[in-house]
């Protein structure tokens, strides 16, 4: 691996010894250590939240009117741009700028809104949270509202597109 070449003395002066080191085995050793640590290390697994998606029904049945939720048995959250979130408990004819209220993601605001709507629901078994992200909403806000749902322990929720009548009122408030 290492060679020491000694040269003779000439005229009373001693010449320096030339040392030559062969680094080839060191490179091999480094490569083997690198491979060892790559194969034996544990990579962290990402923490994910389980979305309770329904199983695919192979024999779909026609819808029954019993599944109608009703305005007061639900609360709808609209995720907007610039981390803004709006909520309402209205239908297409009743929704206006005074019914569409704004809140934010700070603290437990959304969990409190869900709890209040749940307490006031006529049929708490059918109570559902509806999440409607707009095109301007970001993914972080969607994850935040799912976290708030997990905190409030409400398992009935749905994610859908914002309706045109909601878009009209939303745009009036954000302009």
Automatic annotation (TrEMBL):
A GO MF label: transmembrane transporter activity
Keywords from the UniProt entry: Cell membrane, Membrane, Protein transport, Transmembrane, Transmembrane helix, Transport
Protein's membrane topology: Single-pass membrane protein; Single-pass type II membrane protein
Subcellular location field: Cell membrane
Transmembrane segments: 21-39
Record-level GO cellular component terms: plasma membrane
GO annotation terms (biological process): protein transport
Family: Belongs to the ExbD/TolR family.
Protein name stated in the entry: Biopolymer transporter ExbD
